[in-house]
Amino acid sequence: MFEKFYPTFSFDKVEDIPYELFKKERITAVIFDMDNTLVNHKYKYNKNVKEWLKELKKKDIKICILSNSPKTNVVKKVGRELSMKYLYNAFKPWSFGFKKAMDLLDEKKENIIIIGDQLFTDIYGGNRFGIKTILVKPIEKKEFWGTRIKRPIERFIIKKYKANKKYSKENNK
Ligand SMILES: [Mg+2]
Fold first, then answer.
1. What is the pTM of this model?
2. Residue from 108, 114, 120 nearest 151 by CA
3. Number of domains the chain is built from
4. Residue, of 148 and 69, whose pLDDT is higher
5. Among the listed ranges 60-64, 134-138, 163-167, which one has the minimum average pLDDT value?
6. Hey, is 72 helix, strand or coil?
7. What pLDDT does residue 144 have?
8. Ligand 1 centre distance from Cα of residue 56 (Å)
9. Which CATH number goes with the domain that contains 84?
10. Taking CA atoms, which of 8, 18, 30, 69 is between 20 and 30 Å from 111?
11. Residue 93: which domain range?
């Protein structure tokens, strides 16, 4: 019953995701959540993420940010610093933001994956839109209260997900 919240893969952090996974899954475009996936609450990213993204682009994989944040200037700044296209006010899990990202990336659904830290926006949204999903752990604990109250429910679902044999692939930690 929770399967619509289950990610296709899960990792501790973005930099842990092996590039071979994209090749194996025929992924040519990656959508990234921003807050707590790429940057912390001060909108800082670590240099490992920047390097990881740079390598990913060298492998001809298209990337963009799809953020629910209404902070236009912040999303623009992060996007520019990481040399990524960006969309804000995305209203994930609703599909229209995903559709916009798909148009921006100009790839088919089966070749797109989303990476994010929230089950109810990034993962559920990606699943209902029909793309693959990767769950990462939030970069830090300090969060907006609206996000914080959802975390215990997320932990419950993640426990179910990890206990489910069908989903415990070798890439899942
Ligand atoms: Mg997030």
1. 0.90
2. 120
3. 1
4. 69
5. 163-167
6. helix
7. 73
8. 20
9. 3.40.50.1000
10. 69
11. 3-163
